[in-house]
Each structure stands twice: as structure tokens, then as C-alpha cells.
Amino acid sequence: MKKTELLNDLFSFDGRVIIITGGAGAIGSALAELLGNLGASVVITDINEERVKKVAAEIQEKTGNEMLGLVADSTDENQLRELVDKVVARFGKISGLVNNVGWGAATPIWGSDTDKMVKSYKLNTLSAYNLTKFCMPYLEKEENASVVFSNSRVGNTPSPEFIEYSTAKAALLNMARSMAVVGGPKVRFNTVLIGSVDNGESTLDAGFTVEMLQKINDSIVMKRRGFPADIAQGIMFLMSKAASWVTGVDLTLDGGGRYESKMPKSD
Amino acid sequence: MEITNLFNLKNRVAVITGGGNGIGKASALILAQAGASVAVSDLKLPDAESVAEEIRQMGGKAIAVECNVGKDEDLVNLVERANAELGGIHILVNNVGVGGGGRENPFKIGVDKFVWVFELNVFSAWRLSQLCAPYMRDGGYGSIINITSMGSINKSPNMSAYAGSKAALNHMSANLAYDYGQYGIRVNCVGPGATKTAALASVLTPEIEAKMLAGTPIKRLGEVEDISGAVLYFAAPVSEWVSGQVLFVNGGGVQTLD
Fold first, then answer.
1. pLDDT digits (tens, 9 = 90+) for A68-78
2. pTM to 2 decimals?
3. Is B141 in the active site?
4. Which end of chain A is more exposed for a tag (fewer CB within 10 A), N or C?
């Protein structure tokens, strides 16, 4: 094969239909744009219809590939079934799924309760289980079908500051590994464990100050927080043909990690 | 980053050990495909030369260097030649590996043999990293990829030297990632499962292969291209925020010889 043809082949997503949940957010939309640029038709979902339509239209404009924005509440089983039906009705197939939706807030470790814990499990874990289950009949028909789970470094390290989020993510991590064991050879399942990412405004919304963020940047081995594109690129690799013998792995995308605690010090 | 730049290694120089065959050869070729100039080193110069020629045939730039990674003067020579003849060093693939194959009976293996395995699998990778890092730092781009093994986390019979050395390589890489990160140098490992190389062929029987596949979700053994794809990922700007990691490429399973 000639120079560059091989690379184009390994990282081509031509003809592939990929669903990204939480696709209107920073990481989801960066991934949608990347996969669109590499040839995929992408469906992004979000709980906010106006936002998801707007983001999909913007990305379609940039990539020139079809980008469908669909509203779906990932905690609602029926809405996830409808989502799969809509995607299949439009494209006739599903070749990849990125379970990217997730959210968590800081909670003192003894400050949670059953409702909060269950709510987090439903959003961060059960949502991915249900959607993956509904997509499986379609994924199994596709070549190099791949499911990637957006997870977090809080999912595999002690994270008492985020007890609801971290325990749900830990469950998600093992769920992905279990799916990988039975999913092959037809479907691959991999996880990305995401470190501190610069999500723009939503990072500031979460209560971090500019000074705190600078401290985090300094404490990371690669001396900066990740950009959404850094995460998107890792997910893209795991979904590509280049990774066709890769399943059941947890790939940490965290700039080499930190020397310090995950929570910024207040001094 | 522009799409076309994600895997672009134009004007980058890669040094690879054990580049004459198998995973090393596949890695040399894919890095060249991405535009890198490659110093292909091997214990057997004709093997290295053959890969370098293949790269030149496809329009790339490559040199072949004879290198016994157990000899410090050979490592120094490899790095000096790569820098002098290709212009800097940005990528290092420590691919050489020896030992394993269930041939390390702990009652019988000699001290010399055990030390030899560690010298080639661990020390050479550390020393080449030390020799290449200044060029990477000064050249503004650095990625070190160490080829480890599933043996680094598995327990296998008669594999204590090999598996121990690969575990050491993993953790040494994680520590070097910390040390070198501030200079923009990333250090990661690729951990192949049972991959169809000459080394595997020397111990593989149909019975062993069947047993390996029974425990492997993706029902085939690895091809060298499966491993070189992961090498390219870590070598290229696409992973510029990824360091200190071990990526296992193993079809989702564990393949052992027992």
C-alpha cells in the first residue's frame, strides 16, 4: 500500500454511523466533529433539544457530513429505545456508540443519600447499559463495531469528594470490561478514563476559579489540562481500524497524571 | 489540531530497536508511512537494511544500524548516527525483547540468564531513553514507546525473568513519564497479547493456539499491524496529552502457554 493510503484506511470512518450521547457538550461535540471530518455520519444526543439541534447544525456546517441532533433523556428507557429506532430508520445501521453522557457534583462522603446515589447510577451507569443493550442487535451486524465509554479518573481512584459520581463511574468501568468479554469478536468495548479537562464555561460553573485551574495546570505532568479534542482523539483511536484487536481496555487520558490531590487546595 | 496533522510525523525522526522483523518492522513501516525518518536498528544488519530499503522504496528516509542493545557503545552509536544522519531524534521505540516462552525454570535458570533478560528488556530501554531525551527536549517533540507484554501483568509458568522484566519496564516507563513530562516528552507502553511473530511461532502448537483463542473475545491472535497501530497512536500528535500509560492490545483476552 502506498504511503498515506494505509493511514487513510486505518482512520477512515466513511460509511460508519456513530451515536454519541451527551453529544452537545464539550467532549461530545469535539468527538462528533472529529468523526464527521473522518467520514462518519454522527448522531448526537442531549437532553436539551434546542441545544442539540444547534450544535448538530454547527458541526454539519464544519464537516460537510450529516450530523443528526436528537433529544433524549438518557435516564428514560423508552426514549433510548426511540432513539435507536430513529437512528436505524434514518441510516439503516449503527456501527458505533459512545456512551459519553455523565454528570456529577461534589458531595461530602457522608452527605449523600439513597435518592442521590440512585440518581447518579441511573444517569452515569444505567443509561449506558440500556442504550448499549438496545444498540447491540445492530452493532453485531457491522464490521469493527465499537462501543466506547467516557469514564473518569474518579472512577478508578479513591474519590471521596464525588461519592455519587465516582461509585457510578466505577460500576461503569467494570460493566464495560464485562461487556468486552462476551461482546467479541463482533463488538469491541473500551473505556477512556478522563482526567481534568478544560470544558470552557462549564468548568467555571462547577465552582472552579481561574486561580484554581492554573494550579491544576501546573500540577499535571504535561503542564496543562486536557482539551476536549485530546479526549476525542483517544476515543477515535479506540474506534478505528487501527485498534481492531483492542477490547476490554481502560485507556487513561490525563496528561500523565498529577502529583497532587484531585481537589485544588484553597490556599 | 487539523485532521491531517493528527498522525503527521513529517520532519520527525524515529529510532527503533529490533526493527528488522515482526512488531519492530511493522512499527518502523507505519511510522515511515506517517512521514517519519526512521533509524532501523537490529542485531542483524541485513534485516535492518531490508526494512530501511523498503522505507526508501516508498519514498521515505531511513538508515539501518547494527545494534546489540546489550552493548552501551552500540546504543551510543545508534543515537549518534540517527541524530547525525536524520537530523534530531523525536520518537524512540524500545521494541527489543528477549526471554519468555516458558523457558525460565526457576530451579535451573542461571543468574547470567536472568540478568541478561533484564539488561536487554529493561536496561537498554532506560539507557536509550536517557540518550535520546536531550534531543527530544531540544527538538520540541518527544515520544518514547516501550513494547511490554501481557506477561507484565499475567502469571505464567516458567516466565519469572521475562514477566518480571516487563513489569519493571511498565513501571519504569510510568516514572520516566513523570520525569520527562515537563520537557514535553511522553512515555507510554504498548502491551501485545500473543502476536504472530517468529518468537511466538517457536513455541506455538495448534493445541496452545486453540486454548489461547478460547480465552480471547476477538477470535484471532494478534497481527503485527495490530501492535504497530498502537505504536503509531502513541508516537503521533494525536495522543499529545497521553503519557504514562500501558495500552494492552490483546483481543480482550489472556493468552498463556500453559
1. 999 999 999 99
2. 0.93
3. no
4. C
